[in-house]
Recover the amino acids of this structure.
């Protein structure tokens, strides 16, 4: 039998956990083993028969998907990041229509991915000793301040506040340990584009079927199902809230547009350009002004920074706006001043809280964390304060020092991402430019929304920040390496090879 194997396969057993070879190569070698395929087929038939007898077909089918996927992620955790990017837009549908025990799937997935980065083969990890990006120190200060403030509130509020504010940093650490290469970053852009198109279609479908049909599916009023002042349904698509839907479309456009303009003849780019009107209308019907503000600011950055052609699109948008009837419900809902006036009144009424608590009222005492904490403690969540402003939220919870650290983190992230634009080449410049635009957009949108507590925007914020940090890392001196010659890799060699 050994002689019948190809030369590359002789002396090597089929082992999907073998870190020295890709799993695909191991699977392909199965056809050269005379016993392996019949044995696996017989085992599969036996398992299927047992599953049908005991009613375990769905569980067996789930394992048939889960096990190969887990093995693929083990060999290269970067695949787990891409899988997470695909599933995140469906978090709202999972929570609203799925079983209750799946509510914490994101935390389980991210924590498992973080652990896998310590177990995966060395080839999947980044070599060398890299300098941390400058924004890490501001985030560390914000985290330290949050941990300190957790001692001033009850345990339930503290744990929920810390989870919502900082848990997704585990995703950033996982990406830092196992960076995405250029091909995987390109796949991520494809995911953003096609998820934006799919969710836009679902969002417009919701406008057609109406709120009553959505309620019959299991969605809840005043939770997923919300209305504007003119009683127009706000599209939320597959997300938990209209806000998440709107901001996701904002991010997808700002990341996908520069990549598509850099490769206009590519099929993905043509599909994106054709779908842009659909995405734009879907964004309008989410009625998320923070996303519209952020998109406008991000597009202005791209237009005047690198893509001059976008400047000519501004008059087209203004001309299109002239054809919207002045009394239309859509126009009044999007451009009306009542909602913003309600927000500013709410902010001004609570400015005395900041004066009385300059060091904050404690982590988790406002926003989504306060809502969840109130429900767990059988309190009325309607009495909690919703800041609708990321800067004010941090100021209320962590005081003026927290606000300063948040601003420093966002500013240093933008400066760092701009520096990455100058250090990379080729298509990576366009990717980094899109990341800079989305950082500027979220900084603007956070003025009228609590961006960093929304799912999936919180996870995508840390994901994109970490990806940019690994694109052009600055390698520094490290301690002497002791071990096999395989571990003595020149700094940057692995990244250069993967590119």
């Amino acid at each position: 039998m050994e002689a019948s194997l190809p030369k590359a396969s002789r002396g090597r057993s089929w082992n999907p956990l073998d870190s020295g070879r890709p799993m695909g190569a191991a699977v392909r070698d199965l056809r050269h083993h005379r016993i392996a395929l019949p044995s696996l087929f017989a085992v599969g038939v036996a398992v299927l028969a047992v599953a049908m007898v005991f009613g375990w077909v769905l569980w067996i089918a789930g394992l048939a998907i889960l096990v190969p996927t887990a093995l693929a992620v083990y060999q290269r955790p970067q695949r787990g990041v891409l899988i997470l990017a695909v599933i995140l837009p469906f978090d709202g549908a999972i929570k609203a229509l799925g079983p209750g025990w799946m509510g914490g799937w994101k935390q389980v997935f991210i924590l498992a991915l973080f652990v896998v980065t310590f177990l995966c083969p060395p080839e999947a990890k980044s070599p060398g000793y890299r300098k941390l990006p400058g924004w890490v120190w501001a985030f560390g200060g914000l985290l330290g301040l949050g941990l300190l403030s957790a001692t001033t509130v009850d345990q339930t509020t503290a744990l929920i506040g810390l989870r919502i504010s900082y848990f997704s940093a585990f995703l950033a650490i996982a990406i830092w340990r196992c960076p995405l290469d250029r091909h995987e970053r390109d796949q991520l852009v494809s995911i953003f584009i096609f998820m934006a198109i799919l969710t836009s279609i679902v969002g417009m479908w919701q406008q057609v079927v109406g709120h009553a049909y959505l309620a019959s599916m299991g969605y809840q009023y005043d939770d997923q199902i919300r209305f504007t002042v003119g009683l127009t349904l706000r599209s939320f698509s597959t997300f938990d809230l209209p806000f998440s839907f709107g901001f996701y479309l904002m991010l997808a456009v700002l990341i996908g547009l520069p990549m598509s303009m850099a490769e206009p003849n590519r099929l993905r780019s043509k599909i994106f350009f054709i779908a842009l009107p659909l995405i734009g209308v879907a964004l309008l019907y989410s009625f998320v002004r923070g996303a519209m503000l952020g998109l406008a600011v991000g597009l202005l950055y791209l237009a005047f920074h690198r893509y001059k052609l976008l400047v000519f699109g501004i008059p087209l948008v203004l001309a299109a706006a002239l054809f919207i009837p002045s009394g239309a419900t859509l126009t009044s809902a999007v451009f009306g001043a009542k909602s913003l006036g309600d927000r500013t009144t709410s902010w001004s009424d609570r400015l005395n809280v900041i004066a009385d608590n300059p060091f904050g009222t404690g982590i988790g005492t406002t926003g989504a964390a306060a809502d969840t904490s109130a429900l767990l403690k059988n309190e009325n969540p309607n009495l909690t304060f919703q800041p609708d402003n990321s800067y004010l939220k941090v100021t209320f919870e962590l005081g003026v020092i927290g606000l300063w650290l948040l601003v420093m983190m966002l500013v240093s992230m933008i400066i760092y991402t701009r520096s990455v634009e100058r250090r990379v080449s080729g298509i990576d410049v366009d990717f980094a430019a899109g990341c800079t635009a989305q950082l500027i957009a979220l900084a603007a949108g956070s003025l009228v929304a609590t961006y960093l507590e929304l799912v999936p925007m919180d996870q995508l914020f840390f994901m994109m920040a970490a990806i940019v940090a690994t694109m052009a890392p600055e390698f520094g001196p490290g301690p002497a390496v002791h071990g096999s010659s395989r571990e003595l890799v020149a700094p940057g060699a692995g990244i250069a090879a993967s590119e």
Q: What stands out?
A: The chain has 22 helices and two strands.
